[in-house]
Amino acid sequence: MPMTTSNRTALVTGGGSGMGRATSHRLARDGMAVGVLDIAGPSAEGVAKEINEAGGRALAVRADVSNTAEVTAAAAQLRTAFGPVTVLVNNAAIEEFCPFSDITEESWDRHIDVNLKGIYIVTRAVLPDMMVAGWGRIINISALGAQISTPNMSHYYASKGAVISLTRALAAELGAKGITVNSISPGFIDTPMARRAIAGSKFQVPHEQILASYPIPRMGKAEEIAAACAFFASDEAGYITAQLLGVNGGAAV
Fold this sequence. Notes:
Rossmann fold, two-stranded parallel ribbon, 8 helices, 9 strands, globular
């Protein structure tokens, strides 16, 4: 049985691939109308087409989450198509493997702009809908590396660690308004981004060795992240806020 009702509209950023794609499909199956937002317009359009052809309701919206004007326009487009947005999954992110001493200021700023400021911009764009409704779900995607130490991704992990703090701060501020704010910390998930890192030998040890150290020694599935998002988006999760849920095979607690 779906955990959500059919009269809600969700926005999933980074919805064109990987965890965002899986989450868009899951929320649509649970009865929501879904805005599939991605900087890659064709990818968003492909996911929206898949959902619509499967009998769901989806709209592709193209935006760079670090661009206020683009996000505002995308939110307005989604609102016009399906109504107020009361579920938000802040999933869009970029990553780079680079020693700290080699990280350029431009790269540092871009990671903060997309991975952290993007959450600020997108949340601000849809929060008024939730405030009017007196009900809302905000789900922010962090990262395992924000909880444990791994090298060569300081800018990425700094931005993702800040997502956890922002989640808790927003939860404290918005709980009395009927809006919950939670974070999901994915582990080693089988996504195009992870596959590119494996193919480029970006890890200090073979990825099989990393996975073998986990209590559940395998890569996670994008659908497992989507399931966690669906739970946090549901009515059943109404008394859960400010939480960090690790979906990581036991790699961190």
